[in-house]
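Quick log. Single chain, no ligands specified.
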Amino acid sequence: MRIRFAFLTALLLSGTALPAGAEEVQGALPPDAATPPPAAPTKQGRLDQLFAELKRERNEKAAERIAGRIWNEWNQSGSASVDLMMQWAQKATEDQKFDVALDFLDQVVTLQPDYAEGWNRRATVHFLMKNYGKSMADIDRTLQLEPRHFGALSGLAQIMAETGHKQSALEAWQKVLAIYPMMRSAQNQVSTLSEELAGEGI
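-> predicted structure:
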């Protein structure tokens, strides 16, 4: 049975008539007092701000907290049904029931193809199953939707390393550090791979 989810966001911008006499009161207020409050930042706006902070931050623990807030934004699909399927997929993955996890994640990316984290989570499951080609395809889709996805880039780097492509792995880790300079695992991998490649070049 196919279930269709319709996602509708209505934004109403309408002028409302002022009650009698309110024109005079409003006119007596300072100019900025009548200005409506600024709109709450969008998800994209919040992410842009967090990524700017992440790039500037030089304290590892503080950077981890910022990265955690970015993950929280990424995890919000905007759909209770999709969020529930993501939770089920996570539980199945933890239980190593990868086929079950893929069933849920296939539904997620079908229902919400612009939800980057759905593709990233499916890429992770494919990686755990050593389906590297499928994992890379999902990573590619994730990065099309969110080029700053350091989780997907980390996954790409790991696949490159697993398949013996050290130079490509190094480049992927360097892209991670350009976004998240204080990621310790990326720093370590860049150092290790740089030394290995230098040694091989001698």
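The longest helix spans residues 184-201.
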